[in-house]
Q: What sequence folds into this?
């Protein structure tokens, strides 16, 4: 199957969105470009000893020069420290605003929705676009409600999203089919009552 986006970049955007979403109180520092974060929670793959950062882990270390702070479920504890010379070398990454991560992630997801919807034989381009839009809305809703999550180091996010988008499209097509089946008897009944 064709790839509609770079899975590694999509996973990184999803990771950053989950981290930023976990501490909305720090958004002004993200917007200023001064927030560095280190995810301390780890998740392992059952088959190997490799440990990866877990973006859903609720405790994180942050650095805003000259402060170092810790967040736990959106509560903040501030600690003074020496300036960090090399935050990247210590495992920190510069956070961007939650909206930037969300937009980058949704652009890739929408590209996937359009690509997958094009594989379904629709009579018009409008029908294909409607399928893509419906799938993107459903995926966005699942993400916002926390019903769609990935575990770092498991299956690639591209595979998880491809499966989810297919399910959303099948759901939309099934809903459309039910609607058409309900309209036919209603139309027939209306036409028969208008005969004189």
A:
């Amino acid at each position: 199957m064709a790839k509609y986006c770079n899975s590694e970049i999509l996973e990184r955007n999803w990771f950053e969105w989950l981290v930023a979403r976990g501490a909305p109180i720090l958004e002004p520092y993200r917007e200023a470009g001064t927030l560095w974060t280190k995810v301390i929670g780890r998740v392992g793959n059952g088959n190997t000893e490799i440990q990866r950062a877990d973006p859903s882990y609720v405790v994180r270390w942050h650095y805003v020069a000259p402060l170092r702070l810790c967040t736990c479920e959106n509560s903040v504890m501030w600690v003074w420290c020496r300036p960090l010379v090399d935050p990247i070398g210590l495992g920190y990454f510069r956070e961007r605003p939650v909206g930037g991560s969300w937009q980058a992630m949704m652009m890739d997801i929408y590209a996937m929705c359009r690509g997958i919807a094009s594989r379904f034989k629709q009579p018009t381009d409008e029908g294909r676009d409607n399928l893509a839009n419906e799938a993107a809305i459903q995926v966005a809703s699942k993400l916002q409600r926390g019903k769609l999550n990935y575990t770092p180091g498991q299956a690639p996010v591209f595979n998880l999203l491809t499966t989810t988008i297919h399910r959303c499209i099948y759901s939309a097509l099934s809903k459309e089919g039910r609607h058409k089946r309900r309209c036919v008897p209603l139309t027939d009944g209306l036409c028969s009552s208008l005969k004189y």
Summary: Strands lie at 36-39, 42-44, 51-53, 59-64, 67-72, 75-80, 93-94. The first helix runs from residue 7 to 22.
